[in-house]
Amino acid sequence: MRVVIAGGGVIGVCCAYYLAKAGVEVTLLERADIGDGATFGNAGVIAPGHTPIAKPGRLKQALRSMLQPLSPFYVPPRLNLSLLRWLFAFARHCTQRHVTFAMQTLGPMGHASLRLFDELIAEEELACGYRRAGFYEVCLSEGGLRAVTEEAAFVKGYGFDSRALSGAELREREPRLGESIIGGVWYPEAATMNPHGFVTELAARARRLGAALCTGKEVAAVLVESGRVRGVRTRQGELVEADAVVLAAGAYTVPLVRQLGLKLPLEPAKGYHRDAVATSSEPLLRESCVLAERLVFCTPMHAFTRFAGTLEFSGVNHDIRRPRLEQLTRAARDYFPHLPPFEIVSEWCGLRPCLPDGLPAIGAVQRYPGLYVATGHAMAGLTLGPITGKLVAELLTTGTTSIDITALRPDRFSGAGQLA
Ligand SMILES: Cc1cc2nc3c(=O)[nH]c(=O)nc-3n(C[C@H](O)[C@H](O)[C@H](O)COP(=O)(O)OP(=O)(O)OC[C@H]3O[C@@H](n4cnc5c(N)ncnc54)[C@H](O)[C@@H]3O)c2cc1C
């Protein structure tokens, strides 16, 4: 079987690796370089068991955020029909009932993905700073502490371990945390890594298994003959024939499905990072922490510490709003008042692919035999990368999957083979 994958982010590369491992002839086409999209600068936290972005309270946060440009969850006021439709659909999914439904799939996927990370790192010897020391969600306020404690208790029901820690216990583990931290939660099973290191290393292993990973090749159209997918045409005019095509172009997948008359209600949620290096020889942070009230992830990554976060629904663009970017390190100073002086070595933004129910779309598109979608991973694309690749490989080679992913079918947003 010949398979073409559109997109060389963490999802496309994981699909390429597991398909090649299953003996499939794989060609991955990436329009820029491997891992150049959202994967490049994400926070590097493998956080299995985390709930979807659509959850109770998020709608109120979205509405309030229109007046607060520094809010972690930000919807700038603008007239855009597809965003409005997306927000209405999102609002419908911001219920506890939906979170419970979503966790029935995200739970098993999270456990399986973590096992696959351990396996990949050990077997393939991926040099990406993989560290299995968990992360700490740290709180300044009673409200924040209540929210993270409730979330931890909820995900415990799906088998994800967590420990409540006092402010003093947290300061013992991460001495940079200030006196104003009142407590938090430790997720001991979680891991951290340099996401770009991971994806480039895995891409090299996929090549070793025989996959062709081609950069600078943009998929312009999916070719369909007699109702069946036959391959793709690139922007450069090449035709690449295949028995199946996997669309894994992250937040940029929409034009590819639209050209087939399908709709995918995918909105990009922009996130930013600032990488900092202490100007003295001491490391900035020892442990990976999430600043609960500000939704900022702080991850030590060997040569630097990454401050990453914010969800900004401002469309497909890479414009950096400086106040939002600077907010990352400003927030960090509220939680870590003892940070030594540092310099910023990288500033970046990337687009998370988000569907209105907060779940990814993984599976076959009924209307076009041979067409598959693997995108929409929102805040969990790194976390769910390996299991997504494995499930796509299973689906293409056996027609079934080891985890029930009915809830993720790409055409779930409407009937008749449409994606929305
Ligand atoms: C600030 C920030 C922090 C994050 N932190 C975390 C975290 O800690 N943990 C976690 O699990 N997730 C995190 N995420 C989310 C995660 O980064 C994404 O879910 C994940 O990267 C999505 O991967 P992807 O492969 O679908 O998309 P991308 O990484 O965006 O890759 C898509 C690729 O497709 C290519 N492409 C686009 N169109 C075409 C085309 N027509 N033809 C060929 N190629 C094409 C692009 O160039 C790109 O390389 C974070 C995201 C952000 C922005």
Please characterize this protein's 3D structure.
The chain has 420 residues and is an alpha/beta fold. It has a domain at 1-56 and 95-126 and 189-264 and 355-420: FAD/NAD(P)-binding domain (3-Layer(bba) Sandwich), CATH 3.50.50. 31% of the residues lie in helices and 26% in strands.
- How far apart, in Å, are the first and last alpha carbons? 29 Å
| Ligand set | flavin-adenine dinucleotide
Runs in which pLDDT lies below 50 for 5 or more consecutive residues are: 416-420
**Secondary structure: number of strands:** 20
Outline the biggest β-sheet: 9 strands, mixed
Portion of residues within helices: 25-40%
Defining traits:
binds flavin-adenine dinucleotide, 31% helix, FAD/NAD(P)-binding domain, alpha/beta, 420 residues, globular, nine-stranded mixed beta sheet
Provide a brief overview of the structure:
By secondary structure, this protein is of the alpha/beta class.
List the helices and strands and how they pair.
Layout: E1 2-6, H1 10-21, E2 25-30, E3 45-46, H2 58-65, E4 73-74, H3 81-93, H4 96-124, E5 135-139, H5 142-156, E6 163-166, H6 167-173, E7 183-187, E8 191-192, H7 195-208, E9 212-215, E10 219-225, E11 228-234, E12 239-241, E13 244-247, H8 254-258, E14 267-278, E15 289-291, E16 296-301, E17 304-312, H9 322-335, E18 342-354, E19 361-364, E20 371-375, H10 385-398
Parallel strand pairs: 1-2, 1-13, 2-9, 4-17, 5-15, 13-20
Antiparallel strand pairs: 3-8, 5-7, 6-7, 10-11, 11-12, 14-17, 14-18, 15-16, 16-17, 19-20
Helix pairs in contact: 1-7, 1-10, 4-10
Bound molecules: flavin-adenine dinucleotide (FAD).
Flavin-adenine dinucleotide binds near residues 6, 7, 39 and 350.
